[in-house]
Amino acid sequence: AWAGPGAAVAALGPAAATGLGLRLRRLQAVQLAASVGLTAAAVAAIGALGFVGLVAPHIARRLLGHGAFPSMAGSGLVGGLLLLAADSLGRIAVAPLQLPAGLVLAALGAPFLLILLARRG
Cα–Cα distance between 14 and 105 in angstroms, integer? Predict the structure, then answer.
């Protein structure tokens, strides 16, 4: 939460952010370290689930708008909800068996990404 206002200022562009007194390199280093640390912790805890990181920011941006802080917080919330939904669906879909959450996420995330690419293409 403490990097949110700095990220909003950085979204104005490097010249404007520096002009407003933001230490842009420091903010980028902190954001990079935080994202690497959180990603490493998540992968260590649950394994690699690639589509969460690809799909969640796009869904959050569509739901919450284009602000820097809502996008970051929303991405985390949407990613968690996607993972919960994929795991629940994987456990329920073929009742005695269990589908991996990564497989369910890939099956749900791939069409979403293709739709996004088709709209921007």
Answer: 35
Which pTM does this prediction carry?
A: 0.58
Q: What is the chain written as a DSSP string? A: -TTHHHHHHHTT-HHHHHHTT--HHHHHHHHHHHHHHHHHHHHHHH---HHHHHHHHHHHHHHH-S-HHHHHHHHHHHHHHHHHHHHHHHHHTTTTS---HHHHHHHHHHHHHHHHHHHH-
Which one-letter amino acid corresponds to residue 28?
A: Q
Q: What is the pLDDT of residues 91-112, one digit of tens each?
A: 998 878 998 888 888 888 788 8
First to last CA, the chain: 34
